[in-house]
Design a protein that fits this description.
Layout (H helix, E strand, L loop, with lengths): L16 H28 L5 H27 L7 H15 L6 H15 L2 H16 L3 H26 L4 H18 L12 H6 L1 H4 L4 H15 L2 H13 L4 H20 L1 H7 L2 H18 L5 H10 L1 H19 L5 H30 L4 H20 L2 H6 L8
């Protein structure tokens, strides 16, 4: 039985907790919905080559993963962890404005890397806030998280339309607006206080294995899922450029990105039913398997509709894996370590994505679309890590596999 099913009544929850949490998570997605698909287009307006674009996109990811776990652990020790969101938003705004004065490789790299550092704690802290709502008051994670994906869709659609009108010049204004919204939503975030300490030493000792971040199988499944996500690196870095070369308009490219996120929204909408029907391990394994197949099909000449279908598979390659990992964290880690757990997962996600993004610049330059076969191999490695982690569960080994965790 998961912790969510043992949650107390909701009367003591902050007012409008699900709605406010959903809005707070929308804010960084306005930035991501612009940066992920269209920042490479802005970089191209500065006459940067594929290698330089790969470096500029990868270095901030490395910076994020260094700062995310550190600042997340700091947030766990704050009296109010959501207080860090305001500062993150304001500092992101300062770096977005700073990008207006950058024209060449090194200044862009420096300012964008700095943005990665100050952006780092925002999403892990918001994720921990949502999971706290699941633990304490039994709120549905998927119904809160899906609105972030809706915000990503809206930002991507608007961005695609603006790209068609103004080209890469639209990226920084939209990013600036997103950072302003991040700061404002940090003020609106529900205040949840520190996690309650475990009531008794005996109870803590009994659940130490369950609530410890030191469990190897927990780290391995987070690593495996993160490696699967790293298989998306070439898509994020070069898909918009490739689709534009095929003659797709900015609006058409925006629709392709939005199709993937809309499929993700649908998956999050049914997250409660998915969790009731399937175990966390099943969701992660299935999502990883679809990822292997998705990148094998991507280099084929499948036309606009074919790419649309492949984008819809994002519901499995991202959402299923993410829902499964969040459930594993809820079941395996105590609330007082929640932000730290999210920071750890964010670290793994970021470091593998950064390495894959850095490599994708060279792979795409050398092999073009055939580089997606490398992404498929990366996803297969992640799937292998997940399978090994499943076998290494101490509960599974102790009970002959007859636990909810072993599904």
């Amino acid at each position: 039985m998961s912790l969510a099913s043992q949650a107390p009544a909701r009367e003591d929850a902050p007012r409008w907790f699900p709605q406010r949490s959903a809005l707070v998570f929308c804010a960084p997605m306005i930035v991501n919905g612009t940066v992920l698909p269209f920042f490479p287009v802005w970089l191209e307006t500065h006459s940067l080559d594929d290698h330089q674009i790969g470096v500029i996109l990868a270095v901030p990811m490395v910076v994020r993963v260094i700062f995310a776990p550190i600042l997340a652990m700091f947030a766990d020790r704050m009296e109010e962890r959501t207080g860090i969101l305001v500062w993150s938003g304001l500092l992101c705004l300062a770096t977005a404005v700073g990008l207006y004065w950058t024209q060449s490789f090194w200044p862009i790299l420096l300012v964008f890397a700095l943005q990665g550092a100050v952006f780092a704690p925002y999403i892990p802290v918001v994720e921990s806030m949502l999971i706290t709502g699941v633990r304490r008051w039994g709120f549905d994670y998927g119904s809160m998280r899906l609105w972030a994906s809706v915000a990503f869709i809206g930002s991507t659609l608007v961005g695609g339309h603006l790209i068609g009108l103004y080209g890469g010049a639209m990226v920084l204004p939209v990013m600036t607006v997103g950072c302003i919204v991040m700061s404002a939503m940090g003020l609106a975030a529900p205040r949840i206080g520190r996690a309650p300490r475990r009531a008794a030493v005996a109870a803590a000792g009994k659940s130490r294995q369950r609530t410890s971040l030191s469990r190897f199988d927990l780290h391995l499944v987070m690593i495996g899922s993160s490696v699967v996500q790293a298989g998306h690196a070439m898509l994020y870095a070069f898909a918009s450029i490739y689709w534009a070369e095929l003659g797709f308009s900015g609006t058409a490219v925006g629709i392709l990105w939005s199709a993937g996120v809309l499929a993700e929204v649908i998956a999050f909408f049914f997250a409660r039913q998915l969790n009731r029907t399937f175990g966390a391990w099943t969701l992660i394994r299935f999502g990883a398997t679809i990822a292997v197949c998705r990148w094998l099909l991507f280099p084929l000449d499948i036309g606009y509709f074919g790419f649309f279908v492949l984008q819809c598979l994002h519901a499995f390659t991202f959402a299923f894996c993410h829902i499964g990992i969040q459930r594993r964290i809820v079941d395996a880690v105590h609330e007082e370590q929640e932000a730290s757990a999210q920071g750890t997962y964010y670290f793994y996600n970021g470091i593998f994505m950064a390495v894959a993004t850095f490599a994708s610049g060279y792979i795409y330059a050398a092999f073009g679309l055939h580089g997606y076969y490398v992404m498929s191999a990366i996803a297969a490695v992640g799937l292998g890590c997940v399978i090994v982690a499943w076998y290494l569960q101490p509960q599974r080994a102790a009970s002959g596999g007859n636990t909810s965790e072993s599904r």
